[in-house]
Design a protein that fits this description.
This protein is α+β, with helices and mostly antiparallel strands and about 260 residues long. It has three domains: about 50 residues, no CATH class; about 45 residues, no CATH class; about 100 residues, 2-Layer Sandwich (60s Ribosomal Protein L30, Chain: A). Helices cover about 25% and strands about 20% of the residues. It contains four helices and 15 strands. The strands form six sheets. It has a four-stranded mixed β-sheet with strand order 12-15-13-14. The radius of gyration is 46 Å and the shape is rod-shaped.
């Protein structure tokens, strides 16, 4: 073989070796974003996850600068919802952190009553006036507890009668109806008490008072008050509200009272 031929073979051999080296180098460095190890992603400040260069593999790859950053399910760094380092991160609220923690969760102005001033309680993350009551027993007489506030309760009124009558007057029917509504709301047992003015004998007035109490009790039953929660009694003329011998006083004494028993 002459020198020219040897030179040609040498060139071919070197060219083949170069191609082989280029191929091997290509195989070691996959085209971005493909990868087989973290080194293939370093120049993009990423890591190799499932053979692709990603921003993060875990939250530890994200929170080196901002502790509230976390690695999402799509392997991108994003701020964890509600995460905070101080109250400045929580417009209109507070950053609630456990002792020694770097980060916490944004929340309202309070988490429990101890975070509120005296006379207030924590409700829905805000300090609001404390409840005025928890039961009717906390309220003044004649009031009831509704949603923590004392409000005027139902008032059971007297039912008045005409002289020597035991039938309910038309102008007293609304009183009876309102009384029945209050009684249902209270859910208690009641006693209907019949009264008379002092005209007539004791025996007559006791019987008349009984009829008056019975008439009101029957009206209550028609309005839905259970029979077992009612009783009747007559006091005749024994318990007057006034003692003057005048028509206005007698009219006040001709009545039926409804009282809890």
């Amino acid at each position: 073989m002459d020198q020219t031929s040897q030179y040609s073979y040498l060139r071919i051999a070197l060219l083949g070796l170069g191609l082989l080296l280029m191929g091997s180098l290509g195989a070691c460095s996959p085209k971005y974003p493909n990868c087989s190890k973290d080194a293939h992603c370093e120049k993009h400040n990423q890591v190799c996850v499932d053979k692709l260069c990603r921003d993060c593999r875990s939250s530890g790859d994200c929170n080196k600068v901002d502790p509230c950053m976390a690695c999402s399910s799509s392997y991108t760094c994003s701020r964890a919802p509600g995460c905070c380092k101080s109250d400045l991160d929580c417009p209109g609220g507070r950053c609630w952190k456990t002792a020694g923690a770097t980060t916490g969760q944004c929340g309202g102005a309070c988490q429990n009553d101890s975070h509120c001033p005296a006379g207030q309680k924590c409700s829905g993350g805000a300090c609001v006036p404390a409840a005025e009551c928890s039961s009717d027993a906390n309220c003044p007489s004649g009031q009831k507890c509704v949603n923590g506030e004392c409000i005027a309760g139902c008032t059971i009124e007297n039912v008045y009668f005409d002289f020597n009558e035991s039938s309910i007057r038309l102008d007293q029917e609304s009183v009876v109806s309102a009384n029945a509504g209050c009684m249902k709301e209270a859910g208690r047992a009641y006693r209907v008490e019949g009264h008379c003015d002092d005209r007539g004998s004791d025996e007559y007035n006791l019987a008349l008072g009984q009829r008056r109490a019975g008439a009101v009790a029957r009206a209550y039953k028609r309005l839905g008050i259970a029979d077992g929660s009612l009783s009747v009694i007559s006091y005749g003329e024994e318990r007057p509200t006034c003692t003057q011998p005048t028509e206005s006083c007698w009219a006040q004494n001709r009545r039926a009272e409804t009282n809890p028993r």
